[in-house]
Automatic annotation (TrEMBL), chain A:
Catalysed reaction equations from the record: 6-carboxyhexanoyl-[ACP] + L-alanine + H(+) = (8S)-8-amino-7-oxononanoate + holo-[ACP] + CO2
EC class: transferase
InterPro entries, per database record: Aminotransferase_I/II_large, AON_synthase_class-II, PyrdxlP-dep_Trfase, PyrdxlP-dep_Trfase_major, PyrdxlP-dep_Trfase_small
Catalytic activity, EC: 2.3.1.47
Keyword Transferase (UniProt): yes
Lineage of the species this protein comes from: Bacteria, Bacillati, Actinomycetota, Actinomycetes, Micromonosporales
GO molecular function terms listed in the Swiss-Prot or TrEMBL record: 8-amino-7-oxononanoate synthase activity; pyridoxal phosphate binding; transaminase activity
Domain spans labelled Aminotransferase class I/classII large: 154-500
Entry protein name: 8-amino-7-oxononanoate synthase
Pfam families given in the database record: Aminotran_1_2 (PF00155)
TrEMBL record, chain B:
Name of the protein described by the UniProt record: FAD-dependent monooxygenase
Alphabetized PANTHER family for the sequence: CONDITIONED MEDIUM FACTOR RECEPTOR 1, GERANYLGERANYL DIPHOSPHATE REDUCTASE
Matches recorded under InterPro entries: FAD-bd, FAD/NAD-bd_sf, Geranylgeranyl_reductase
Any GO MF annotation of the entry: FAD binding
Bilayer-crossing regions: none
Annotated source species: Micromonospora carbonacea
FAD-binding domain sequence ranges: 2-348
Highest taxon of source: Bacteria
Cited Gene3D superfamilies: FAD/NAD(P)-binding domain
Keyword Oxidoreductase: yes
Family annotation (Pfam families): FAD_binding_3 (PF01494)
Keyword annotations from UniProtKB, A to Z: Monooxygenase, Oxidoreductase
C-alpha cells in the first residue's frame, strides 16, 4: 500500500460528497467522487452504478438520479434510524422469561420490578398467555377470561382432562359421596392422620394399574417427582436425566446432588455411555436414571425396555414419570409401560393424577415395601404436606376404576379418534405436529414472536390453546401444546385445526416472517 | 444452453458453480468484478466454514497463505472466556445438515476476500465451470413466467445473452436477481450494527480475540500479508456521531472496549490501508426459489456482521443448493422436490432460532446482569464454554445451549462468583453509563 491510499477519504465521507453533488444535479462531481470509493464498497453495493454516474440525466427527468440517491441514502442513513416503533410491542415480543432470571441488586422486592414491567407490556399487547381463568367447567368447549378481563368462548385444547372425567356423572358422584362421608378436609399429613380408608383403596388400585404394589400418594404430581428424587438421592450419588424430563424431576435432581448429567432426549446409547463413564470412576454411589414416559413437550417416549436393561447392567436405578400417559393410552390404560410390556418391571414409577385422573395429586410406586417407607419418611413433600383431600382421593379412585373397565377402553378410543382428526387436519395443512399420536399434540411454531402473535389471534377466533415457550421449551422452539379430550368431536378438532392454520398464516403475514415450521 | 447460470462469483456463487461443475453439469458464472478483488466483508471463517473448504479440497491452498487458529478469546465486560469448537459438535452439525461429516477441521481463519474469492473462482474454472469476470448481468430473460437466462454487458463492452435450466442468484445482499424479480424482504430486522475496520501490521495478537463492553465491540484477528484485521462495531443509532471522526473514534472505541488492545494498536500498530465501514447490515430473508431461479448466500438471507457468519453460511448454502440442484439435473427428483429439500434446511427451526440470536445480538444492547453472570458461570467449565462458542457460531443449535435446564445446571456448577469482576460493583451506574453515546 502506498501512502496515497492511506490518505484517501473513507467511503462514508465520499458518499456524503456524492449525495451532496446529487442534490445540485452535478453528475460530473458525483462520478469523480465515486472513482475514489473503495473497491470493497463498489463490489458490495452492486446496485449502485458507480461507473456510470456521469451518464445519469442531471435533470432527474427519468427518475434514475432519485433512485441512486435513495439507494445511497439507505446505505448510509437507513430509514429505520428515523422511524418510530411501538416500544411496548417491541419489548413484549423481544424478551424471554429467562432474561429476568437473575435480577441485580440487594433489594429482593425492588428487583422484581423489571420482570413485572415486561409482564405488563405483554398484557397490554395481549400476548401474555398465562393467568387466564375459566368461567365454567372446562369441557371440549370452554368459556374463559384473560387477565385483562377480556372474555372468549372456544374449542378447548387448553385443559388437561384427557378422558373428560370432569363432567362424568360417576366421578362427580364419587366426589359427593366422599364429601358426605369425610368432609372437604384431610386435616393432616399422610404420615400422621391425613389419609382415609379410600387412600388405601386408591394405593391398591394404582398398584394393580402399574403392576407395582407399593404405592405412596403425594398431594401434587410435582411434589411426587421432586420428592422421589430428593428422598432417594444424596450428594455423592448421580442423576442421569433426559434433557427434556419434566421440571419437577430436573429441579429435584439439582436439589439432591451436583452430579447431574443431562442426556440427549431419548438417547439410550447416550445413557449407556454416561453410566460407563460414571462407573469407571465411581463404583460406590448410586445412580438414578430419570425419564418421562410420554414427554409432554415433544409427545414421544423412550425405549424403556432397553433403558431398564442398561440401568441394571450398570447398577443404576430407573425412574419413569408416567404423568401424561397412564390412564390415557396403552392396553387397559396402562400407558407407555403397558405398551412396552413392562408392567411391574420398572424400578420406580411416578405419576400425576391431573391429566387422566381428574384431580390434583401424584404417586410413587415400586415393588419394594422398604422403598415406600423410605420415600414417605425422607421426601419432604410427602411428610410435610397435607394429604390429598378425601374428595380428591375418591375421585382418583373412581377414575382408576373406570380406566380399567370396558368404559375406559371406549373413552380411549374416542380420545384417539379426536387425536387423529386433529393431527391429520393440521398435517394436511402443512403444519408440523411433533411426536406420536397421544393426548398431547405439540404443534411446532419455533419463533416466539410468531407464536405469541398467533396465540393472540386464536384467543379472538375461538380456539383455546396453550402456547409454550421458554422455560418450558428451549428458546426458538415455541409451540402450541394442544391437549385433546375424549369429549372432543372429530369435527371440532378439524375446525380448530383450520382456525389455527389461519391464525399462523395471518401472524406470519403480520410479522412478515418467512420462517416455516420445518423440524430442522 | 447451460444447466445453470450463477450470477455472482464470490463465496456463494463460485462455490455453487464449483460443486455443480464437479458433478458434470454445464455451468456459467458471471461476476461484475475481476479477481483478485476485495468486497466489504468481515472475512472470517468459523471452523465449519474451513471444513467446507476442506471437503472441497481447497483448504490447503488457503492455509498456505493464511494464519489459522483453533482457540478464540471472548471477553465480555472484562470476563474472559477461551475455547474452541469441539469436533463432536462439528460432526453432528454436518451430519444433520448434509448427511455426512467428512472433512471436519477445528481451525478458524480470517481470509482476505482478494485471496479467498480468487481461490474459489479459479477452482470453479478448473472444475469446468465457465467463468466470465468483469461482466455485468443487466436483465433476466423471462419466458412464460419462468427465468430462462440472462442478458448483460461483457468485459469487452459487448452484449451477451445466455440461457440455462436454472439461474442461481449468488449476488449478495444487494442481489440484482432478487431486485429484478421484485422479491420482498421478509422478517426484516433493521436494528443492526455499524462496523469499521482496517489492517494493521507491527504486532502479534497471538490468536483471534473478540471483546464486548457496553454497546460496543471490537475484534482483532491475524489475517493475510502479515497483517491483523482490527474491527470495531456498535449500534447503528450511534453511527452518525461515529462518522464525524472515523480514525479518532476507531481508537476511542478500542480504548473503551479493550484498553489493552487499544494500547497495542496505538503504540505498536501501523495501519496499512484506509478505514472501511458499513452500516448497511439489516437482517432479512427473501423467498428462496421460484420458477427458474434459486438464491444462495446473502442474497437469500443477510445478517449483521456481529457473529461473522456470512461466508460460512454462503458455503453452507452452496453445498445444500448444489446437492439439491444436482438431484434435479441428474433426473433423480423434480425441481420442486429438490427445492423443498433445500428450503427445509434453510428455513428450519434451528435456522430461525439462530437468525433471532444474531439479530438480537446486533442490537448491541449492553449485556444484562444475568447474561454477565452466565459468562462468569462458564469460567472453568470448558465443555460448556466450547458449546457456547459453537452455539455463537451456529454449529450447535441455539436451543440446546439456551435451554432452561442447561442454564440452571450451569449456574449450579459455577466455580467462580461475580466478586472478582469490577463490572458488578455498581452495576446500575455502569449500565446507565453504557447507554451514553461514547462519540456524542
Amino acid at each position: 500500500m502506498t501512502s496515497t491510499d492511506l490518505q484517501q477519504r473513507d467511503d462514508g465521507e465520499l458518499i456524503e460528497a456524492i449525495l451532496d453533488a446529487a442534490r445540485r444535479g452535478d453528475v460530473a462531481t458525483m462520478a469523480r467522487e465515486a472513482a475514489e470509493v473503495s473497491e470493497m464498497t463498489r463490489n458490495w453495493a452492486t446496485h449502485i452504478p458507480w461507473d456510470d454516474l456521469a451518464a445519469l440525466d442531471a435533470s432527474g427527468a427519468d427518475g434514475e438520479l432519485a433512485r441512486v440517491v435513495a439507494d445511497l441514502t439507505e446505505m448510509w442513513e437507513p430509514a429505520h434510524l428515523r422511524n418510530p416503533v411501538d416500544p411496548d410491542e417491541e419489548y413484549a415480543l423481544d424478551k424471554n422469561a429467562y432474561d429476568f432470571y437473575r435480577p441485580a441488586g440487594r433489594d429482593l422486592l425492588a428487583r422484581t420490578e423489571d420482570f413485572y414491567g415486561w409482564v405488563q407490556a405483554r398484557r397490554r399487547t395481549e400476548t401474555w398467555q398465562y393467568s387466564r381463568v375459566l368461567e365454567a367447567a372446562p369441557d371440549s368447549i370452554a368459556e374463559i377470561t384473560n387477565d385483562l378481563g377480556k372474555r372468549t368462548r372456544g374449542i378447548n385444547f387448553n385443559s388437561q382432562d384427557y378422558l373428560s372425567f370432569n363432567t362424568h356423572p360417576a366421578i362427580r358422584e364419587a366426589a359427593v359421596r366422599a364429601m358426605r362421608d369425610y368432609g372437604p378436609h384431610s386435616a393432616g399429613s399422610p404420615m400422621v392422620l391425613g389419609n382415609t380408608r379410600i387412600s388405601d383403596e386408591l394405593e391398591a388400585a394404582l398398584g394393580e394399574l402399574t403392576g407395582l404394589e407399593h404405592v405412596t400418594l403425594f398431594s401434587t404430581g410435582w411434589s411426587a417427582g421432586f420428592g422421589a428424587i430428593v428422598g432417594l438421592v444424596r450428594q455423592s450419588d448421580h442423576v442421569v436425566i433426559d434433557r427434556l424430563a419434566h421440571s419437577c424431576l430436573q429441579q429435584g435432581a439439582r436439589a439432591a446432588t451436583r452430579n447431574v448429567v443431562r442426556y440427549e432426549h431419548l438417547n439410550v446409547e447416550a445413557v449407556r455411555q454416561h453410566l460407563v463413564d460414571i462407573r469407571s470412576h465411581d463404583t460406590r454411589n448410586g445412580i438414578l436414571v430419570v425419564t418421562d414416559g410420554l414427554f409432554s413437550v415433544d409427545a414421544d417416549w423412550p425405549d424403556l425396555v432397553t433403558l431398564q436393561r442398561v440401568c441394571r447392567e450398570h447398577d443404576a436405578t430407573l425412574l419413569v414419570d408416567v404423568a401424561h400417559d397412564l390412564g390415557a393410552m396403552g392396553p387397559g390404560g396402562t400407558g407407555v409401560l403397558g405398551m412396552q410390556g413392562l408392567l411391574g418391571e420398572v424400578d420406580i414409577v411416578m405419576g400425576a393424577f391431573s391429566k387422566s385422573f381428574c384431580s390434583n395429586g401424584g404417586f410413587v410406586a415400586s415393588r419394594s415395601p422398604a422403598l415406600k417407607q423410605y420415600v414417605k419418611m425422607f421426601s419432604g413433600s410427602h411428610f410435610f404436606s397435607n394429604a390429598l383431600s378425601p374428595v380428591q382421593t375418591a375421585v382418583v379412585r373412581e377414575a382408576a376404576r373406570i380406566i380399567r373397565s370396558p368404559e375406559g377402553d371406549e373413552l380411549r378410543a374416542r380420545l384417539f379418534t379426536a387425536i387423529h382428526a386433529l393431527r391429520d387436519e393440521l398435517t394436511g395443512r402443512g403444519l408440523t405436529c411433533m411426536g406420536e399420536p397421544s393426548p398431547i399434540v405439540p404443534l411446532l411454531i419455533g419463533n416466539e414472536k410468531l407464536a405469541r402473535t398467533a396465540n393472540r389471534l386464536l384467543f379472538d377466533r375461538g380456539v383455546l390453546a396453550f402456547m409454550v415457550e421458554f422455560p418450558v421449551t428451549p428458546t426458538g422452539s415455541s409451540r402450541f401444546r394442544l391437549q385433546v379430550q375424549a369429549g372432543h368431536r372429530p369435527e371440532e378438532a378439524r375446525e380448530a385445526a383450520r382456525i389455527i392454520e389461519g391464525a399462523i398464516a395471518d401472524s406470519r403475514a403480520y410479522l412478515s416472517s418467512a420462517f416455516g415450521s420445518a423440524a430442522r | 444452453m447451460y444447466d445453470a447460470i450463477v450470477v455472482g462469483g464470490r463465496c456463494a456463487g463460485a462455490a455453487t458453480a464449483l460443486l455443480l461443475a464437479r458433478q458434470g453439469h454445464r455451468v456459467l458464472v458471471v461476476d461484475r468484478s475481476s479477481f483478485p478483488s476485495d468486497v466489504i466483508s468481515t472475512h472470517f471463517l468459523w471452523p465449519h466454514g474451513m471444513s467446507y473448504l476442506n471437503r472441497w479440497g481447497l483448504l490447503d491452498q488457503v492455509t498456505a497463505v493464511t494464519p489459522t487458529h483453533t482457540v478464540v478469546d471472548i471477553v465480555n465486560d472484562g470476563i474472559p472466556l477461551s475455547g474452541s469448537v469441539p469436533v463432536s459438535l462439528l460432526r453432528e452439525h454436518f451430519r444433520d445438515l448434509h448427511g455426512d461429516d467428512s472433512g471436519v477441521v477445528q481451525s478458524y481463519a480470517s481470509v482476505r476476500r482478494r485471496v479467498l474469492d480468487q481461490i474459489l473462482v479459479e477452482a470453479a474454472a478448473k472444475a469446468g465451470a465457465e467463468v466470465r469476470t468483469h461482466s455485468t448481468v443487466r436483465e433476466l430473460i423471462i419466458s412464460d413466467g419462468r427465468v430462462v437466462g440472462v442478458r448483460g454487458r461483457a468485459s469487452d463492452g459487448g452484449e451477451f445473452e445466455e440461457r440455462a435450466r436454472i439461474v442461481v442468484g449468488a449476488d449478495g445482499r444487494n442481489s440484482f436477481v432478487a431486485r429484478t424479480l421484485g422479491l420482498p424482504r421478509f422478517d426484516e430486522r433493521p436494528r443492526c450494527t455499524f462496523a469499521y475496520w482496517s489492517y494493521w501490521s507491527g504486532f502479534d495478537p497471538g490468536r483471534g480475540q473478540i471483546h464486548r463492553r457496553g454497546r460496543l465491540g471490537c475484534a482483532v484477528v491475524p489475517t493475510n500479508f502479515g497483517q491483523n484485521m482490527v474491527l470495531v462495531w456498535g449500534p447503528s443509532e450511534w453511527s452518525r456521531e461515529f462518522r464525524a471522526d472515523v480514525p479518532g473514534n476507531v481508537q476511542r472505541a478500542l480504548d473503551f472496549v479493550s484498553p489493552e488492545l487499544g494500547e497495542l494498536v496505538r503504540t505498536r500498530g501501523t495501519r496499512e490501508e484506509r478505514i472501511y465501514g458499513t452500516l448497511d447490515q439489516s437482517g432479512f430473508l427473501r423467498q428462496l426459489h421460484g420458477p427458474g431461479w434459486v438464491l444462495v448466500g446473502d442474497a437469500e438471507s443477510a445478517k449483521d456482521q456481529c457473529t461473522a457468519i456470512g461466508m460460512t453460511h454462503a458455503f453452507r448454502d452452496a453445498e445444500l443448493a448444489s446437492a439439491a440442484l444436482h438431484r434435479w439435473l441428474a433426473g433423480e427428483s423434480s425441481l420442486d422436490e429438490a427445492m423443498a429439500a433445500y428450503e427445509g434446511r434453510r428455513r428450519s427451526q434451528n435456522s430461525a432460532a439462530y437468525y433471532d440470536y444474531v439479530c438480537t445480538l446486533s442490537e448491541m444492547r449492553p449485556y444484562r446482569h444475568d447474561e454477565l453472570q452466565l459468562f462468569v458461570a462458564l469460567r472453568g467449565n470448558q465443555e460448556e464454554t466450547d458449546r457456547f462458542i459453537a452455539t455463537h457460531a451456529d454449529i450447535a443449535p441455539v436451543s440446546e445451549f439456551f435451554q432452561a435446564s442447561n442454564l440452571f445446571l450451569l449456574n449450579d456448577a459455577a466455580k467462580e462468583s461475580s466478586a472478582g469482576y469490577p463490572v458488578f460493583e455498581d452495576f446500575a451506574a455502569t449500565s446507565r453509563m453504557y447507554q451514553q453515546n461514547l462519540f456524542a
